[in-house]
Amino acid sequence: MRSGPAFQDVPGRVRLARFVTRREFQSQALFIVIAVLLVWGAIQVAADNLAESSGKSGFAFLWQKASFELGESLIPYSAGDTYFKAFVVGVLNTLKVAALGIVLSTFIGLIIALGQLSKSVVIARLCRGYVEVVRNVPLLLQLLFWHTFLLRGLPTVRQALSPVDGVYLTNRGLYLLSPVAEPSFWIVMLALAGGIALAVGLWFWHRKTNAAFRLWPWGLTIAVLPALLAAYVAGAPITWEIPRLTGFNFTGGMTISPEFTAMLLGLSIYTGAFNAEIIRAGILGVSKGQVEAGLSLGLHPGQVMRKIVLPQALRIIIPPISNSYLNLTKESSLGVAIGYPEVVRVANITLAETSQSLECVSIIMLIYLILSLITSLILNVMNAQTSREER
Amino acid sequence: MSEVVLHRLPWWRRLTAELTKSPVSAVLNIAALVVFVLIAIPLVNWALIDAVWTGESGDSCPPGSGACWAFIGSKLRLILFGRFPYDEQWRAFAGTVILVALVVISLNPVFWRKWLLPVWIAGLLSYGILMWGGVFGLSFVESSLWGGLPLTILLTVFGVGFGLVISVPIALGRQSKLPVFRLSAIVFVEAVRGVPLISVLFMASVLLPLIIPDGFTPDGLGRVLIGLVLFLAAYMAEVLRGGLQAIPKGQYEACRSLGIAYWPMMLKVILPQAFETVLPAMVNLFIGALKGTSLVVIVAMMDLLGAAQAALADPKWIGFYVETYVFAGIIYALMCGSISWYGRQTERSLREMREQSNDRR
């Protein structure tokens, strides 16, 4: 609704265009003139200041060699690669922690939301307490706490804590088993793909004919059986590489840095509290009559939840939770405070090395703007799809 | 057991009745209580029973003992006031009390009177005198030395205050039918909401010196505050827009038929109602702003969190980070909790006032 009835029509006021009075035109023109003057002045001053400090400007530095290492990276990177590549590493690290954080925070949120709605008063109160405490403490404080805890609270490499064989908790990071593909891997994968295709076929047939059997157990069996057979015949598709203590550090296996763990923990625990509130509101938003109607039709409570409450709750949940996911992505920028090499961290080091502050800050903003735009596009599409089912 | 009977019972009977409503909930409750107690016992042991309350250095808290509150005790002034000169810290304390009192009375509809403006002016004047000094025999304290809790509260209050003021024209611009205003408002709001707060703070602290002529550049605190205000204004404008949209069209039409011009209509009729509608959302933004001020640590300012970290750097006390973060966390949680409590109170008293005035009519 854009009801801005700006000015009444007074006789004698000259109309310049059909809907624009003179005063409206003047105010807009004045605004543009002032804005242009301000921007022009800022550019002049910036040019002067840059000339004085003989600072370079422009984005050419992106193709120069960066002299810093980044702690972790999804693509091979080392000091001596270009700044551009360093930024790519930063973006990938941001996406990595955001994607995992979104999954984990949704999971935490779901559990806490169901806990708050639980029949048990004690569980409900405990979950409520979690939400109240976690939401009211700044995320940065939580991140710093987790980071310090992982660095100082965990034992050294030599006295590594090993809750399960092959998993080592140390102050230098988490050491895990890593999967290694054997030659039979592709055969088994092929069998799995075939099995899934068969299961999808079964699903279609089941929908078409309404055959009287339960879909889930049969579908799952058909999907998994070929892969199991193939693995039995061709040998295990994956072997596990176990991290071993050699000298001062572990070699082999998979390493997860304390920075990443702290980011993932902090972001998920914090956003999980917000997601819990969103999911709870969504479930409570489905009217009680719907549940009662379902129960009186003879569905059991699980079916009511799955087939009646959740689909409707989802429609309420998706818009706010997508906002919460976007917040999580933006808040992953706090990695700069604990040294997790995401975009802002990379930009910050680059800024310190090249002192091209204008460029570095605009790169950060551009990247986040693009991420936000893409996310809101995807969510708009999803939103349109869920609301289209409305009858 | 019916509700009426329940209310007459003593509290322990009510509690047991509540805990054992049905067999399922009884089992769940007992299991949850057992787990809770099992977790709580070591926590209470650590925080209270085994805790060390006095001591001069880290040696008084041997490893294996509980929480070292002696550390917090010896660093209390540093954590709370940062680098504010030690002997002058009462000034920061008094100034902050005045500032908080101003906010508290302004949020209560009972005090929405004409005299609130002069009270604010007097309060801000005394706040400035207490913080900066330089007059009345008070020594001058430059703003780079302000820190700890007073800085956190300053950034929150002024960030929210100026943010609110700026958000009004932005929200109105976004509602306007004049394309220039509407487009600029949309671009500003969407651009700011698309980027993280830390990047806005970076921009404010490295970009402002570049584009403002030498001599006019605000100091570090001013720059951070500008960044915070711009960031909050975008979110507040978006919230306010929701409030404006909720106002029935008849209100505008009534104003127009009474011959009220645009600005009087907005200021006296539309905006007061819009602000009332969005009060809960604004309180949430207030809390978000308070938590967000902790980010100034990253641009090298020493707010409550920064001062807490500075306290950790003392070589005489090593490794008491849990105590420090828990202490700072409790302060933040208490502040946020009281803001949301007070927000709910304000909402309720607003509703009561509305009902009373309706009755009178």
TrEMBL record, chain B:
It is a multi-pass membrane protein. The keyword Transport applies. It comes from the Bacteria. PROSITE patterns: ABC_TM1 (PS50928). Residues 149-343 form the ABC transmembrane type-1 domain. It is found in: Cell inner membrane; Cell membrane. The chain crosses the membrane at residues 26-49, 90-112, 119-141, 153-173, 185-212, 224-244, 293-313, 325-343. Keywords: Cell membrane, Membrane, Transmembrane, Transmembrane helix, Transport. Signal peptide: none annotated. This is Amino acid ABC transporter permease. It comes from Sneathiella sedimenti. The lineage of its organism: Bacteria, Pseudomonadati, Pseudomonadota, Alphaproteobacteria, Sneathiellales.
